[in-house]
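Render this sequence as a predicted structure.
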Amino acid sequence: MTGRVVIKIGGEVVGSASLPRLAAGIRALVEEGAQVAVVHGAGPQVSALQQRLGIEARKVVGRRYTDQATLDVVKLAVAGQVNVDLCTGLRQAGLLPVGLHGAVWARKRPPRVYPGAGTEPIDLGLVGDVTGFDLPLLRTLWQAGRLPVLACLGVEPGQPGGGGAIYNINADTVAAALSRALPAQRLVLVSDVPVRRELADARSRIDTLSAAEARALIRDGVARGGMVAKLEEACGALDQGVQEVLITADLAAETTTLRP
């Protein structure tokens, strides 16, 4: 296909044997003429490093609470380990990836109510909302035949000569925001979180959803944990003109397609 495609890759996929197959699929898209941007997370790597360092991991409906110690771990795992490992895997598939951190702009997320977490607003700490991207940089890389690979960290620019704040951002959120900003024709969310009516029952996988049906799954409590964040971001992307969102549990070879 031609056009623009944003692909989010979860940290669990980066550390799995399925990465070469996924990288080959990305190469096929690039060879067909698509402008592809990759966004990645590092959930398992962050949790593993927190455990090694004795730092408690806290999550709210699939989203990580981030204090300063956790943010330091996120920077090490996301912009360091996973970005390097992912770019290496993509290069082995014949692609020309460029790892990026600093291309996502953000501000601190204010407290908000999250589906499935009660009625009181929750402050997730040093978590950001995306305010923009360095789109000229992405266009320059595409023109040079390179593949942008964005870490899920956001920077709030400071004053000239001063440092800006850094925020942890859910990789699904970054990918959905980028798909809207470009805009992209397709958003692909690759992780190990399938879209099912019963999480433990593979036979309950949902093949296709409209945005309204996805929101009903969240409202009725069918979607839980990490599935909630993915469906929320998918719906937001569809609302802003993205034509199609694929949620792929690549480790289980399951795909759910969302359209407006």
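Summary. The CA atoms of residues 90 and 180 lie 24 Å apart. The radius of gyration is 17 Å.
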